[in-house]
């Protein structure tokens, strides 16, 4: 009866796909994580919207918290460790979700855009300094390294740009993540407003060059940048 209702009621197309992939999309705005015993995942606190199977979670360990520093201390603690056998569904206020597999690589993610990462990945948090900080990319970036999955969020469908094909310039407020090892520099241009009498000064872009990619969202996420600085 239940199966007939799902099929006849037009709901069958919304059922979760039966996939063995570690991290996969359900639609564009939800991440499904397949968990098995011993294969834990770190996920943003508050991001769980559903789960099935036998799952449990706990705050990150003191050792891991010390590694993450201020970004993961006290009320700023943004991650929970999920474990067990089942499927975990994650979302973040309707943002689009992009799941990336690292194969011995490192990815630098703006802290506000990290949704989940395999617990097998090494992780560090660094204050953004130099050119990136001057350009306003946010105070903390999370670097995940090794082999495993990382899930990031984007305010709108993101684009992934290959910096090996050409030097790539990005509005810092639209920058989600980039592979480490890229050469990063700033570029200053005249603000459009200064040309029509409604403002003055310069605009900054971040330039990326080398072997790797950047993830860019179709939104200038200035509100989230202010939150992470607060």
Automatic annotation (TrEMBL):
It holds the Pfam family AIM24. It comes from the Bacteria. InterPro entries: AIM24, AIM24_sf, Trp_RNA-bd_attenuator-like_dom. Gene3D superfamilies: Mitochondrial biogenesis AIM24. SUPFAM superfamilies: TRAP-like. This is AIM24 family protein.
């Amino acid at each position: 009866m239940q199966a007939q209702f799902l099929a006849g009621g037009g709901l069958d197309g919304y059922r979760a796909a039966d996939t063995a992939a570690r991290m996969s999309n359900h639609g564009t705005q939800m991440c499904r994580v397949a968990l098995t015993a011993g294969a834990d995942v770190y996920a943003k606190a508050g991001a769980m919207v559903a789960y099935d199977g036998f799952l449990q979670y706990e705050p990150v360990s003191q050792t891991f918290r010390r590694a993450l520093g201020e970004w993961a201390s006290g009320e700023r603690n943004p991650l929970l460790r999920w474990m067990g056998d089942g499927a975990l569904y994650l979302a973040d206020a309707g943002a689009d979700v992009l799941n990336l597999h690292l194969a011995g690589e490192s990815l630098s993610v703006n802290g506000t855009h990290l949704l989940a990462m395999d617990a097998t990945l090494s992780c560090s948090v660094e204050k953004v300094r130099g050119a990136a900080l001057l350009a306003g990319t946010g105070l903390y970036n999370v670097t995940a390294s090794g082999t495993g999955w990382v899930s990031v969020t984007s305010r709108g469908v993101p684009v992934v740009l290959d910096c090996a094909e050409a030097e790539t310039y990005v509005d810092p407020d639209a920058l989600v993540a980039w592979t480490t090892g890229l050469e990063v520099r700033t570029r200053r241009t005249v603000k459009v407003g200064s040309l029509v009498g409604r403002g003055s000064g310069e605009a900054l872009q971040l330039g990326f060059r080398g072997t790797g990619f950047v993830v860019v969202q179709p939104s200038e996420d200035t509100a989230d940048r202010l939150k992470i600085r607060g």
